[in-house]
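Bench notes, afternoon.
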Amino acid sequence: MTKLRCAILDDYQKVALTAADWSPILDRVEVKHITWHIDQQDELVELIADCEIVVMMRERTPFRASLLDRLPRLKLLVTTGMRNASIDLEAAASKGITVCGTGGAGNSTAELTWALLLGLARNIVQEHHAIRSGQWQSTIGVDLYGKTLGVLGLGKLGSQIAKFGQAFGMDVMAWSQNLSQQRADEAGVRLAASKEELLENSDFVSIHLVLSDRTRGLIGAADLKRMRPSAFLINTSRAPIVDQTALAEALQNSWIAGAAVDVFEVEPLPKDDLFRSLPNLLTTFISGMFHKPIMRHFIETSCKISELIYPESRYGLFPSGGCIT
């Protein structure tokens, strides 16, 4: 039997082959494991053109129409989550390519968001490095109790962040273009009359919005200037929701006290990028999606991809995810 070929892309942490048992499909699928990022389309096509299956790591490598046109053997594209803006779903459907997403709880992103918020409030990274270099008590932290947390977007993740804030004794207010008074009441938060009101009155602002034409550039220079000089911004949603040039300017000129992000317009972040050196910016890679439980779920789900090709397979198909196209 001729084996199918499957490429796993952008596995920077090199966990895909050890996070789950691949043995049930290895007699039918040849796995190609790519642990580095490939930003040149010609190089990528050369590596995966012979593959019927591609397993993506979130949005690290976009699959636009121009790339799909060059992958005539591709039949199945698997991605983390049930939404991936980097895939041209219309182009995939026109070529008969099935796009599937894996399920997973959003608690990991919420937990990372709160870790970043605490890191900003208590200057954890600065104090860690200060102790390592022989210093002692180099900064002054900020209490959360009694402070105002502004949540942009009160969906699943935003609601979790609101609960975290309430647990820490914070006054929580929320706003989005579609947020109703009823939904705010259900979450036990104050509904801001406008984006401007939320920005002007919050000590911490956390973004939990889907990237769309309406939200792209939602936070620009004028918005950042509305925030308090002592305020902090956290973005674990999508980088383009915040004007990146304006954010850099805000941090350089102390329009706000600091920011924390794990999303960037260009990923991996270039080594000479300004965001790598700003002292009041707390950064990580997109680690909200990559922790052991969700990686294990993602890889185990990906192990069952052969069911779409081999209907007689005895393994259950995408128990907590599903097909997007």
